[in-house]
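Can anyone check this?
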Amino acid sequence: MSGVIAVAGLGFTYPGNVAPTLHDVAFNISPGEVFGFLGPSGAGKSTTQRILTGLLTGYTGKVTVLGREIGAWGRDYYERVGVGFESPIAFGGLTLVENLRYFAHLYRGPTRNPLELLERVGLASDANLPAARMSKGMGVRLNVARALIHTPEIIFLDEPTSGLDPVGAEHMMSLISDERNAGRTVIVSTHDMGLAERICDRVAFIVEGCVAQIGVPDQLRRQHGSAAVRLSWPGGQAVFPLMGLADNREFHETLRNKPVQSIHSQEAGLADVFTQLTGRSLT
């Protein structure tokens, strides 16, 4: 087993359940990688994250993080990892900046400036807002800021664009990319295909407690899409194979004679790839 995170033969069954939630899950995550878990609700994404973050015990198989079996870590584990949940977690009577200052005091090592972190997640103007008055999107961003407060080596994020508008989602993707560029490892569970396709170095499709496929988003999209381009014009469209496109007379005649408004390659989106590979929808 190798990698900053190495998982082999992972299984888990919740107490009182007969069927396992996870069975024979295996993957490796490299340092400085953004790794995404994709799958429908109930597929096992959150259970996997809870095991990796030490919140669930009693699993079978091997789970090694930073060279040590997860169960062998003590409190010092949380000095080296950061966790951002989807549901807002904060003290409602404290302001946003007071929440970050409180959480910063829980760590033994150096921490980031809370006001600078709030600015980084787009909450600087709300620094003195009581946390009880946050929207869901604000809570998600505060959770991410809290996960980064101690500059961890590994960052676990659950649906980090949930509740965010397009500008906020773009801001979050930029932040995650910056963390990767700084050498940190980011593990993301998400339904946001834009996030997965644009910033994940690799993704794992999880369905019914198993990893169905692991791959690089662009490669998966090309592998399971069509090697073709589609031309569209008012009232019509045509699809042409990429092979021999430069010499395709019909393609060039269409460009010359039709009021073409768009040209699109035909690679599949990750949601399409997931459906092709598993027969399931991501929703």
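Reply from J.R.: I decoded it. The mean pLDDT is 92.
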